[in-house]
């Protein structure tokens, strides 16, 4: 039995919220353009979920919760928002060519009503000192289901 034989038991890898953003991020992952992501440390603290470790695997799902691929974490670190570098921003595969454009998009997402609701903080705001989790990953296999 392969390491991925029980992919149904792996945690979900959900990018953005269901809809156009998630669809675009999933496509970027599956085409290899997106090999990194950034999350708020506050999300982990609120949910009680542990931060991923190198070697951890998860199941990439689309906006309809359909499993598409197995991802493996290759690097993880917690830094302040001001410490995110251009290489990481580019590797997120969303077309950013400057750290400024990356930060504008991410700040808007993290301060959107859906994220503020998820964080249970209607006033949530990010600044240079906001702690974020930088993750690098790779697609180790595609999932083909009969559904």
TrEMBL record:
Residues 15-141 form the ASCH domain. This is ASCH domain-containing protein. SUPFAM superfamilies: PUA domain-like. Signal peptide: none annotated. It comes from Bombiscardovia apis. PANTHER family: CYTOPLASMIC PROTEIN (PTHR39203:SF1), CYTOPLASMIC PROTEIN-RELATED (PTHR39203). It comes from the Bacteria. InterPro entries: ASCH_domain, DUF984, PUA-like_sf. SMART domains: ASCH.
């Amino acid at each position: 039995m392969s390491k991925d034989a029980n992919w149904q038991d792996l945690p979900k890898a959900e990018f953005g919220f269901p809809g156009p953003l998630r669809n675009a991020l999933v496509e970027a992952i599956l085409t290899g353009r997106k090999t990194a992501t950034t999350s708020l440390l506050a999300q982990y603290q609120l949910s009680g979920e542990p931060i991923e470790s190198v070697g951890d695997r998860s199941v990439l799902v689309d906006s309809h919760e359909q499993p598409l691929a197995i991802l493996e974490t290759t690097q993880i670190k917690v830094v302040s928002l001001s410490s995110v570098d251009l290489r990481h921003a580019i590797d997120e595969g969303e077309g950013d060519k400057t750290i400024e454009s990356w930060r504008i998009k991410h700040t808007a997402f993290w301060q959107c009503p859906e994220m503020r609701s998820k964080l249970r903080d209607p006033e949530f705001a990010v600044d240079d000192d906001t702690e974020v989790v930088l993750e690098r990953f790779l697609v180790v296999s595609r999932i083909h289901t009969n559904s």
